[in-house]
Design brief:
The chain has one domain: P-loop containing nucleotide triphosphate hydrolases (Rossmann fold, 3-Layer(aba) Sandwich). Helix 6 crosses helix 7. The N terminus and C terminus are likely disordered. It is of the alpha/beta class. Bound molecules: adenosine-5'-triphosphate and magnesium ion. Adenosine-5'-triphosphate binds next to helix 1, strand 8 and helix 9.
Length: 271
């Protein structure tokens, strides 16, 4: 027996540590998924320091703050980026909106629930840190991608977020993306040991999605406010991102997911 979808799949990208490449991955994967015909919504879950609008080269008219203050409905706050690709933007450094408290989080959680069936995919791009604004939202996703580099300071934080999600919210399955690698063999060894420790200590399943090399042209893409995948469509880095889309599309979901957006969209399938 395996579990699949009818309806929207929510994928969360978290890391604990900041600056490891989450936003770059989400912007590029979103763009690829959209070009593959999946209607995709990216939610900038860096609620108070939103940057996805800049990264994706759009100037959203509305941000999540206007939704939470009741000035606009969530559906009307979405900015169309390109064919099949939408963004729910967050404000940056807005006075009076320095953190998303529990009431706001719950309100947003229910607003997002109402998007059921409007999108094939929703990608959550979290901020760094381990606070509830990150974990409570990440916990409700169907699939959990944890992004890390092979530096101890980074994978220690990746371990910490997996620990909170597994022990507090019963998330049992994680995908790992390793970024900014300068030596893929060495990175593979380090991350192999890391995954062994996480599996045995946390009793979770951890699958390595891929190791991405250090790629200076990613900052060039940000400077140009374009997706790397559209600037360099034939590049090996774009090929690796496309493989991730395929792997995640093909992967059945396990039943045991703790909290969940769109609970009703999970349907039981016979294998
Ligand atoms: N594989 C990579 N190689 C080189 N530079 C990268 C790579 N991935 C991302 N970067 C660069 O690292 C910087 C941080 O990336 P990004 O904003 O995507 O990280 P983040 O995890 O979203 O950060 P934050 O936690 O602050 O939201 C950017 O300048 C980006 O261009
Ligand atoms: Mg980011």
């Amino acid at each position: 027996m395996s579990y699949g979808y009818s309806g929207t799949k929510v994928v969360s990208f978290s890391s604990g540590k900041g600056g490891v490449g989450k936003t770059s991955l989400v912007a590029n994967l979103g763009s690829l998924w959209a070009s593959r015909g999946k209607k995709t919504l990216i939610i900038d879950a860096d609620w108070t320091l939103g940057k996805l609008g800049i990264a994706m080269g759009v100037r959203p008219q509305w941000t999540v703050e206007k939704v939470l203050s009741g000035q606009i409905a969530l559906m009307d706050a979405l900015e169309k980026v390109s064919e099949n690709l939408y963004l729910l933007a967050s404000p940056s450094g807005l006075l009076g909106f320095e953190e998303l408290d529990e009431t706001c989080r719950n309100q947003l959680y229910f607003e997002i629930e109402n998007l059921h069936d409007q999108f094939d995919l929703i990608l959550l791009d979290h901020s760094s840190g381990l606070h509830s604004s990150v974990t409570a939202f990440a916990a409700a996703a169907h699939q959990h991608v944890v992004v890390t580099t092979s530096e101890p300071t980074s994978y220690t934080d990746a371990y910490a977020i997996m620990k909170i999600l597994s022990q507090k919210y019963s998330v049992r399955e994680f995908w790992l993306i390793v970024t900014m690698s300068h030596n893929s063999l060495e990175t593979d060894k380090i991350m192999g040991r890391f995954m062994d420790v996480a599996r045995s200590q946390l009793d979770v399943r951890v699958k390595l999605l891929d190791i991405f090399p250090w790629e200076p042209r990613l900052s060039e893409a940000i400077r140009k406010q374009k997706a790397f995948t559209s600037l360099f469509p034939k590049d090996a880095f774009t090929g690796k991102l496309t493989d991730i889309c395929r792997k995640m599309d093909d992967s059945p979901l396990s039943k045991n997911h703790g909290l969940r957006f769109f609970y009703g969209s999970m349907t039981e399938k016979t294998a």
